[in-house]
Input
Amino acid sequence: MSGQDQGILEALALNEDKISKLYELYAGIYEKYYGFWYMLSSDELSHAAWLRSLDRSYRNGTLVVNEKRFNITAVKLFGDYLDQKAVEVQNNELPMEKALVIALDIENSLIEKSWFTMLESALTEDKLMLQRLPRH
Output
């Protein structure tokens, strides 16, 4: 495990948690669309759980992480961006259109869209999990 990828899967999982929290905040604001935002929030929690499961395989040596695929600094900066968006929502009334644009930007971001491409596993269980991961 190199310094570059050490903790990368947990950092990605934390970002999924943060996205879930942001969508949960949106669900609280836009009650008419609660089900929509709640579903998105739940999906992100599932992604975080998968990443944590894969992280255990990585730490056991059965999962390979492509170090060149993601820079942990970029992942953490994305997490900072998510924190900023959550604070903005808590401090301001946000039009639904703006929330949708932010969500679309998040879902289309390189980090959120492609993190699964850096993983390769020798275990059948992990391979099946990788196949279930969203391919936006």
